[in-house]
Design goal:
33% helix; 106 residues; four-stranded antiparallel beta sheet; single chain; 3 helices; alpha+beta
């Protein structure tokens, strides 16, 4: 069994690496993905649900999420998840970062 503090640290590291590496690449026209310092502030201030909860809400195995970004879309914060399925198909899932609810178009 993995100690809770290692599990939490691993999830935080995963979120930082994944979100930090690709945020500008997944924003749609007119949307703005948060830069690292803003993203950290939103996460630290509990303004958004954890990335792991967003992934579970989208019903996507974490290992299949190849990119994630925290973006402003339509006046709200949204996790944009890029998913690679086992058959090689790439899709996007959008999850409201404030509530953890999957948004239309998933």
């Amino acid at each position: 069994m993995i100690p809770a503090r290692l599990l939490v640290a691993g999830c935080a590291t995963f979120a930082t690496v994944v979100l930090g590496a690709v945020a500008p690449a997944v924003a749609a026209q007119g949307d703005r993905c948060l830069p690292p310092e803003e993203r950290r502030a939103k996460i630290a201030g509990h303004a958004v649900v954890p990335l792991s909860k967003a992934i579970r809400a989208a019903k996507v195995p974490r290992r299949e999420v190849v990119r994630a970004a925290l973006c402003e879309q339509g006046g709200r914060l949204v996790y944009v998840l890029t998913v690679l399925s086992r058959d090689g198909k790439v899709t996007r899932a959008r999850v409201d970062a404030g509530t953890g609810t999957v948004l239309a178009g998933h």
